[in-house]
Specification:
- It is a single chain.
- This protein is of the alpha/beta class and 221 residues long.
- The chain has a single domain (4-214), classed as Collagenase (Catalytic Domain), CATH 3.40.390.10.
- It has helices at residues 68-81, 160-175, 200-209; strands at 4-9, 36-40, 43-47, 58-62, 90-92, 101-104, 126-134, 140-151, 217-220.
- Strands 1, 4, 5, 6, 7, 8 and 9 form a 7-stranded mixed β-sheet that branches.
Amino acid sequence: MNPRRLLLLGLASGAGLLSCADIAGPSRNIAYEWRVILSTPAGPDTVSFHWPQSRLPVRVWAADTLNLPAHVQHGIDQWEAAFLYGEFKAVVVSDSNVADVIVTSGIAPKGGLSVTRLESLMAPECQGATDIELTADGQQILAPIRVYVDPRFDPSSPAVDSCMALTTTHELGHSLGIFLHSLDPNDIMYSDPVVPVLSARDRATAELAYHTEATLTITPR
């Protein structure tokens, strides 16, 4: 059976994701909506995911290009620090064959939607996407999750490294279960991120996501 694909983009788009107003708000009033509504044979279904304790630390492999390993480690450090009790842990691994998350330089797969970051004060244009494949019944994520981060300008441009860093952290947020974008530009999970670090809202959302029962599990391909 063919898997279903959930492509989470660095910019807001009409990718079948509904806005925060379409789902009841989280209990922590500073958190934003992180879950997504998918169409199923039985009708719309709100789905969510977080890495279970049994799968920690999440193994992340980064291509050795454009300083990606360092950006990935920086992003992991930020997201781990968002949790008070070690609810999320990740480690960079050297073998992509054992990875739960694969981070590469490139554009989203053909057939999906591509995304371009708009030029900001922080950095020139770059792009990012997180590709999450679901089983045909929509109940499980097929590992590994794939993250794509790529500059649209000459990689030697002075601000590209900053752009790549914040985009990598943003896309890692999708891979740990924050499926929707924040509506606040002060958050790293804003659709077109311009801040280099997680906000209090990002941290509250991550904590809430990891203390809410997940509807999706993850399984090897």
